[in-house]
Amino acid sequence: MKKFVMAALGGTVAGIIATTQIAGPLLAQETDKQDNVYEQLDLFGDIFERIRSQYVEDVDTSDLIEAAIDGMLTSLDPHSSYLSPDDASAMRVQTRGEFGGLGIEVTQEEGFVKVVSPMDGTPADEAGILAGDFITHVDGESVLGLTLDDAVGKMRGPVGAEIIITVVREGEGEPFDVSIIRDTIELQAVRAKTEGDTVVLRVTTFNDKTTPNLTEKLAEEVAALGGMDNVNGFVIDLRNNPGGLLTQAIRVSDAFLEEGEIVSTRGRNPEEGDRFNAVPG
């Protein structure tokens, strides 16, 4: 019995020693990794400070930080990136599919905002804004030198708020001001047409309006052809679609599929994965 107890104790001691011998190197390796991370962060801080204080031109420190964060994310895969607060706000507008604005499609020409087309029934359309008009000022501030996104941002705002834009129009001797009351502008996520007996659906983005737009446009085109029996097929045009809400992409796919997996997602942990299948009907 004493031998058994001693042997057992000996085994326990040996186990403690073996565990210590194994755990020791693991802890040391983990400490080395942490030290290396801190060294890299020190290097980053040193480079950041050198750029801030010695670069040939003054730099915006927040831009440097955002660029560094974006660099980390883009190095992971082609689909990871960083959104600044302004970019995130713009994306939320796009995914909602509506915003407070004037209702004009615009481009930029010679530094000014040029109206491509007013949207039917919008405040800009009702105020008489025409395709080809140049917008030079918004509420008295020049848009010359602004990016197109910045200029558009100035024209958007709370629904019901007044905005005054200065317009230069061909054939008019002088620029003139136009007062417009902002209203809710809905982005058209789906456009439809028929080619013979085929319905072509142009899906420009996946936002909150995509599925309702698709259902509406699809019903209109099918009715115009005299019913589903007269429809030869459907073409879904996704060219230049930048993406958007995964839920909307799944619903659009489900509208045309009867069975099978639509898409699956995978996380680091197995429980973080998900799978979406088509539902009949």
Architecture overview:
The chain has 281 residues and is α+β, with helices and mostly antiparallel strands. It folds into three domains: 2-68; 99-186, PDZ domain (Pdz3 Domain, Roll); 190-277, no CATH class. Helices cover 41% and strands 24% of the residues. The protein has seven helices and 13 strands. The chain has helices spanning 2-54, 61-74, 85-96, 123-126, 148-155, 210-224, 246-254, and strands at 98-101, 104-109, 112-118, 134-138, 141-142, 162-168, 176-181, 183-186, 190-195, 198-203, 233-237, 261-265, 274-277. The strands form four sheets. Strands 2, 3, 4, 5, 6 and 7 form a six-stranded antiparallel sheet that branches. Strand 6 and strand 7 (176-181) form a beta hairpin. The longest helix has 53 residues, at 2-54. It is flat. The relative contact order is 0.07. Residues 1-22 have low confidence and may be disordered.
Query: What share of the residues lie within helices?
Result: 40-55%
Strand-residue proportion: 15-25%
Q: SSE order, as H and E?
A: HHHEEEHEEHEEEEEHEHEE
Radius of gyration: 30 Å
Number of helices: 7
CATH second-level architecture of the largest domain? Roll
Distance between the amino and carboxyl termini:
76 Å
CATH topology of the largest domain: Pdz3 Domain
Overall structural domain count: 3
Which word captures the global form?
flat
Q: Give start-end ranges of low-pLDDT stretches.
A: 1-22
Q: Return the CATH class of the largest domain.
A: Mainly Beta
Give a quick account of the main beta sheet: strands, pairing sense, barrel closure: 6 strands, antiparallel
Average pLDDT rating: 85
Number of strands: 13
Structural class: alpha+beta
CATH homologous superfamily (4th level) name of the largest domain:
PDZ domain
